[in-house]
Structure formats: C-alpha cells, structure tokens
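User: what does the whole thing look like in 3D?
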Amino acid sequence: MRCLLLTVATMAFSTPSFAQTFFVDDATVVASNGTQSKTDIIVVDGVIQGRGARLSAPDGATTISGGWVTPGLFAPMSSLGMTDIGSAGPGNDVGSETSETNVSEYAADSFNPRSVHISNVRQSGITHAVIAPRSGGNSIFAGTGAIISMTGNFDSVIIPEAFVMVDMGETGTIRAGGSRAAAMSQLRAAIEDAEGFFKRYATQSDGGDILSRQDAAAFSRAVEGNIPLFIRVNRAADIMRLVELKSRHRSLDIVIVGGAEAWEVANDIAGANIRVILDPLQNLPSAFESAGSRLDNILFLEKAGVEYAISNLTALGVTKPATLAQHAGAAIVEGLRWDQAFSAISSVPASWFGVDTPSIVVWDGDPLEVTSAPIAMSIDGKAQSMTSRQKALRDRYNPTYDGNLSHKYR
Amino acid sequence: MDASDETPFASTYKPQPSTSVLLKNATLIDGVSAEERTGNILVADGRISFVGDGDVPEGVTEMDLEGRYVTPGIIDIHSHLGNYPSPGVRAHGDGNEATSPITSEVYAEHGVWPQDPGFDEALQGGVTTLHILPGSANLFGGRGVTLRNVPSRTVQGMKFPDAPYTLKMACGENPKRVYGTKGGPASRMGNVAGYRKNWIKAAAYKAKRDKGGDYDRDLQLETLADVLDGKILVQMHCYRADEMVQILDLAKEFEYKVTTFHHAVEAYKIGDYLAENDTCAAMWADWGAFKMESFDYINENIPFVHAADACAMIHSDDENNIQRLNQEVAKTWADGNRAGLNISKAEAWKWLSTNPAKALGILEETGTLEAGKRADIVIWDGDPFSTYGRPDKVMLDGAILFDRSSGLKPKSDFRLGYADLTEGVK
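Assistant: Here's the predicted 3D structure for the full assembly of 836 residues, as structure tokens:
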C-alpha cells in the first residue's frame, strides 16, 4: 500500500493534472450494478481507451497496481454550490429564514458551479450530487432541489426541478408552530392547494389554504408524482403517517430522508413503495425522534425490499459528501454486500433521477476504504481536473517543498 | 484559605475487576515504536507487566490473537460527551456558561451527565480515556476534566485519578460573535485585550496567594493562577495560523505555557512555531469551511504538523467521529503519504493515544503499551487503518468492558425501554 501511495505522490508533483495516461494493471473494475471483475485497463485523460486481460503499458503511462475503476459516486444529499462557508450570512444560501416563498425557491438559482467546494469534494470521487435547500421561517417546505454534475461548469445543473424538499419530524414541528399535528396539517393543506390549483387560484392569487400561487404551482409536479417528494423524517410513527398519506395520495413519490427508525416499519415502507436515504452510521439517540437509531437499520430495509440510497447525513455540513464512501463502507461492516453498498452511493440514487451520464473514477484502492483516493476522473467523457483549492494549499505548505520561494510565491 | 489543601469533587475511580491474561501472538502497535511487531503482552493486576516477551506466571489465562492488531486505548482530547449529551435537547446543553467572556470559575465536570449514551458508543470505538471541555464562547471558558470511559453513576467515578485540570480558552470568531453585542469582545483585538487584562489580575492574585496569610478566595482567578503555577494545562481553541502565533506571544508575556491548540485548522502553516514552543495541535482529519476561520482546511493537516516535528493528534469534538477516530487517522495518514511523506502506521498511531496522553499530562499512566502502565488496550478484529477494522475487545485497567464477540457492552439508563425495544427484534 505504501509503495503505491508513494508512486502516486511523485506523480502528483511531476506531471500536470490533465493529459495523463494510466496503465491500471489487473484493475478491479466495478460495473454500474456494483459487481466486480478483473482486467487490465488503459485510461487516457480519465477515459478508458483499452481493456483486456493482458495489455501492456503504453509509452509514458503511469502504472498503477491494485487500482480500481468504477462509475462516479452520486451523493444523494448535499448543499454543494449553495454555500461558501457554513455560518449564516452572505455565502450561505441553503435556507431562507424570512422569505415569503417556499416551494418556488429553487436550489438551482442559488447554485454556484464555481464554488471551491465543488472541486474540493470532487477529489473524493463524487461526480454527481443532489443539492437540497433547508426549511426556514414558518414553512415546512424548504424549496425545490436540483441534480448537478461536479464539473464546475455553468451547464452543470442537470435537473433544475428535481424534487421538492419538506421537513417533517422535529424540525417540521418547529416550522409549523409547535406540533406534529400542525406540520401534517400544513402538508395536507399544501397537497390540496396543488391538487386544486386551477380552481383555487383562478380568480385570486391567495386562494389557497397554505401556499401562495407560485408555491402551489411549483408543488404541483411533486403532487402529481412527476418529481419525488423528499421528506426529512426519523421517527417510526412519523414514517407511518407518511405511509398513510401515500395511501390517500397514491401519485406521491415519497423519498424519506433520515429514516433513523425505518427498520421498525421496513415492511410498511416497502409496501407503500417509499424509498429511503439513510446514514448507516446513525446510531445515537441524538433526538427523541431517533431514539431507536441502530447501525444495522439498512439491513432491515434491504431484507424488506425497500429501495435505499446511502448518505452521510450525520457528517458535517458544507463539504458533507466528501466522506460518502466511508459511510457506505460502514454498512458493509454491518453485513451489507459490497455491491449493494456501492450501488447505494452510485447507480441507485442516479436511477431515481434518470441520470445516466457516463462517469469514471480510477482509484488507488477499494473506493470504500478510508485510505483510498481517486487518481483520475472523467464526467461524460471529459477528463476532470484533479486539483482543488485544498490541494493548492497542500502543495504550498507541503513539508517536502525544497525550493527557495516564500509561501506566497509558491 | 488554600484550595489545594483539599480536593473538592475528588476522583472515586476504581478499576473494574479483572484477571491476569496473556495476549499472545499479537501484531503490536505500541504507541512508542515507529514499526509494528509481533509479540505478547502480559496483563496482571490491571497493569501491563511486559510487552514483547517475559516471564509468565503459572496459571495465567492465555488468549491467542493469531496476529490480530493490539493497540493502546484511544484517547480523545476534545469531547463534549456528557456536557452536550444525546438526546440533544435544550435542557441537556450544559457545556458552555455563555454568560460572560470570562468564566474560568466553572468546571466542565459539573455539567457532565454520566448517562450520555455516547460514552458507551465511544467505548465500542476503542476510546478508553477522554477529555471533556467547556464550549468555546468565552475567552476563558472554564476547567476541563479527563475521564476514564467507564460505566459510572457519577462523574467522580470516571475522573482520571491525579490527572491535571485543564483550562479551556478560545480564540477568534466565537468569543467575538457571542459577546460582540453583549459588551464585548467584538473583535480579535478585544479578544487579546481580554486575555491580557485577566492575566494581569491573575498574576496579582497569585502574588497575594504566594505570600500566604489571609486573602479572599476567587474561583475565577484561582484557575488562572493555577495555570501560572503550571498546575493547570491550557487547552486553547484556535483555528488560524497567525492567531496561534499571537497566542504563543501572549503566553510568553505572562509566562505560561499553551499545552495544546484545539481544532488548529491552519496548524500545517506553522508547524515550525509549534515545534519550537513545544505546543501540541489537536486536529480533525477533514473538517472545514463551516466558518471563515476553518476555510483553509486541508486533509493533510495532522501529517504535515507531524512532519514538522511538532506534537500532532486527532480529536473528535463530535459524538459520531469519536466512535471511529482510527478511521479519521487512517484518512489523514493516507493523504499525508500521498502528498509525499513516508509515515508508518505505528508512527501515525501516536496521533490517537501517545500524543493526547502527553497533552493531558497522563502519559506516565496510559497512552502506550509499556510495562507498568494501565492496561488500556484495544484488540481489533481487522486493520485499524481501514474502513473494515473495528475493535473486538476494549480493556480499561485490564478489565474487558466491551467485547463484540460475546456481546458484552454497557448500556446507559437512557437506552432502557428504547434499547430493549430495538434489541427485541433481532
């Protein structure tokens, strides 16, 4: 392992980040369903140019042994591009505390593809991400989330209206005025506003029970089931309320975010065709609503046939997705198969949004291993820069620097 | 009156019952050597009798580890378990007396709830000793306390016997944000003026105390004077490189020592200053950008500080990461080597136990696998530098308090009813 790391380190200093040829000797190749096979691979500028059992290294290629080649990771929850720093104020667009709108607030409008965190986080193998707003003020409705690719280009919002984000549970309770009953009342009223949109808002703009005209219009697509409705919820009893809601409004495409106690009602979730985004490392009773948290939550969902994606929800905010693979690896330790864990941070959430952009990551080891890192990446056939603000800082202050320039000239 | 004549809230810690055991055929990472090696450890009377080879008394139980990793117990120098416990309800927020920038009179131990379920989970992650600090709203936050991670009804029953007290201080954004509209400080200038004013008062108090005779006892100044006497170790929350160097100058002005900078997100920029001042840095592997002073985070912070010959270590400041500090170190270790360093696992392990023990003044008692020390030991079921390796057995003073194989683990009072429910299903 150490030899491999040193090879890669030397490379990082001696060659530019683009225009690289790698010969991955006896690579572990991971298919989109997570299954593994072995072959030699030649990667030029992040794109596979050759594969076969007995290839030899092209001239000038860097040889990697023990390498892995996988599809890019898909982060099912993030605030990437919406935040420069996590503390409140300009530089943080994740939630709007005093705005008069809610569902019609689009994360895509806040999204800045040039955020340095896009390239920082891309270095962990993530090629696509969900970006979601957070609720504020008196509304359980956070807004409308988007799907982005991690290229950092201005065309990187793939789906601007991807899903509607709602906070229920303890956060929703606070938003709605103090009780779960109030939060459910808001949710039901909003569904009826959207369902009866033409009747209610035809003559007056405030004709709805709870939503303004533009918010009701924005909510319609989720209520019709054209886009998913993401609902943050943890308590089993709260999840059962959503199962009941789904039985009344069958068009809703509900995705639970959190689901700490989902294991307790896994069969009901499966029966209602509700999907779950969860963190396999959530095991503390961090709130009363998650008192039943347990590390093997995900195994219950797998057994019940619930479709799930893994997110590192308990990790820190702004650059949260960076540790996605570590959290997926934790599920394997609990008993999930490797291919299931890997799919839950790649093809499964991608399929929910029909994202099938080809993406490739070449790793120096098992991508779910904390000591591994990507060494080359491509999105839609285009090589991605393996540099970032973090790496620039790293290089400037690297103890191995042996030049004579002072820091600001390096 | 002299406070040192008595020991208020004294430790009542007693090791749990244990039997002698020979751990055979272990892959040892001992926290001292830079290389791992194969060997045996004899544990007797709660202490380490030998590491490597030695005389084994007759009748001692043998445990053949078949090459599995054995390490010192992990020490987390920055935790709020107990004073910001789970569940995180407002009534549980006992970690910061944010009513004045100077609260050096408060003791973290008076806000620690020993039933925090987080202690039990941290134990399962191999944490045998942890240091609980007051929060960072204040310039002088109060006294920290070092705890043995044992199930106990009281915090006194967890207090590490004879561990020195610590003083939490804070730099930067937090004090000026919290007090900016409450009489100050409202800037980094105000922060430094606040430290200096109070060190001047502390020096006067100390002079009075040193002279003997009658004086009015002042809890606030007592803590600061104990720092000036070298009895209390300064643990200072500080992110920015330039600010840490200002603080090192402040310490020179008032002749005290900064033992450790905590968080120290920019420590990698000033490894040389840290080494020269013999000041440690306790850091995360990859946290940053949550506020301006953490914007320049890099994943190689710990190995870069280590490479400057300064005392580097991991810390959690988090009820989740404390359960996997070995993985946090594995990440930063791998990134450091990827950046061109050549640090062995055994060397990197010092970030998990040796250096935090040093920075808490308890290295003579724990932190390494050496004869005579407390038998605080983790036996791993895989490689501790891996996603897939976890503690199988965790020992404090030779007593196995967590055993994944047998299912032995502590359970907080809070878990009752809830935990019974969750365990019933399996």
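In plain terms: Chain A touches chain B through 55 residues (CB under 8 Å). Residues 1-17 of chain A have pLDDT under 50 and may be disordered.
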